[in-house]
Amino acid sequence: MTDTNTEIIAQRVEAALHALRSQDVDADGIRAAMDAFTERHGLPAIRFDAHGAAALSVKGLSIVLTQTPNYPGLVASAFFDLEEEDSDRLAPFLLRQNMNWAETGGAIFTRLPPAREVQLSQQIVIRAGDGAGFEDDLMSFVRIALRWRTTLSELSELPDTGLDDI
Predict the structure, then answer these.
(1) What does the alpha-carbon distance between residue 22 and residue 16 come to, in Å, rounded to a whole number?
(2) Is 117:81 a contact under the CB 8 Å cutoff?
């Protein structure tokens, strides 16, 4: 790629980020979207801590929502604690899934060794006046995370060589 092409791409990315930032909602807007979501689903109110994180539990799955500066939304993360013997062998498989957005719904897996925990995360956009879009995106992430919780429990039953065939 030439320097000119790189500059054009960089300008387009910056313009897209600027457009996203111009739709940013403030803390009150995020709180209003969260309050509407929890009320609609009969969940307790969610409040962000001093670090900008809030936790909720859906069907026994812990979801952490983190505020992101300079971006109109939150990062939703689900955490899966793998058995020690499964952690090292499943991690490469899960990282390969990051290239298969049909399976992850655009979310990505991460793992920071030596932790056994694997994290599935996705950006959830919140735009002013679009509480329904936020809720749809969050519920989509929750469905994907719940499906991966089941998949991970099934994968832990496979022999080491079984993961290469998936």
Answers:
(1) 10
(2) yes
